[in-house]
Write a structure and sequence with these properties.
alpha+beta, seven-stranded mixed β-sheet, 42% helix, elongated, transmembrane
């Protein structure tokens, strides 16, 4: 009985997460129409996304990634509902608790949009979520040179720039992105500075893991 209640709570939390995630992506797609960067193909291709290091794509409702989230959310909700019915109607949960929880996590985590970074006039869209300028504590830039954790993982990463954003009151910060082109990076820095978002630039030396820091205000 207690296990059934716990799983029901997990179900409610999971459904809430999936619905909010889909709505978040929808809002981001609407806002991305007013993006300042990136706009052209070269700007999109200059941004690489972990972990597969694919080039960034536009965030639009007709893209495969958006449609995957849209229809994947519906399918996931159906699967979770069926799973809940099986758990409540049978004693499967009692004998296979870990398997049920694992299946639950797999369904939830499978609905994920590709990463992205859009700079707007009053904030950014990072990995499908909008953050206003005052929500961003700072951004950090690290040049990917020898001894950097990303150096050598892909030839395109070498001597590129890792950009990470620190979000206020965010327990699990969004993933970083990598910018290949220094000119486009300067353009991004200028747009962020215009919003008053502070930045830290770290250039790691080839023979040392200690970087030089420059704070932008």
């Amino acid at each position: 009985m207690v296990i059934n209640i716990l799983f029901t709570i997990m179900f409610v939390l999971g459904v809430n997460y999936l619905i909010n995630y889909q709505l978040r992506i929808k809002k981001a797609a609407d806002l991305s129409k007013d993006t300042l960067f990136p706009n052209i193909d070269d700007e999109f291709s200059s941004i690489l996304l972990p972990i597969e290091w694919k080039e960034m794509e536009p965030l639009a409702k007709n893209t495969k990634s958006y449609q995957y989230v849209k229809w994947g959310t519906i399918i996931a909700l159906v699967l979770l509902t069926v799973l809940l019915w099986i758990v409540l109607a049978t004693d499967w949960l009692g004998s296979s608790f870990l398997s049920i929880v694992y299946l639950f996590i797999v369904i939830i985590s499978s609905i994920k949009h590709r990463g992205n970074l859009f700079i707007l006039s009053k904030g950014i869209i990072l990995n499908g979520k909008f953050y206003s300028s005052n929500q961003i504590k700072y951004y950090q830039i690290e040049k990917i040179v020898r001894w950097h954790e990303l150096y050598g993982l892909d030839d395109r990463l070498n001597n590129a720039y890792k950009m990470t954003f620190k979000i206020k009151k965010e327990l699990f910060p969004p993933n970083y992105i990598v910018v290949k082109d220094a000119d486009y990076l300067e353009r991004m820095i200028l747009l962020l500075d215009e919003q008053g978002i502070p930045g830290i630039k770290e250039i790691e030396q080839a023979n040392s893991s200690v970087g030089n820091f420059t704070t932008k205000s």
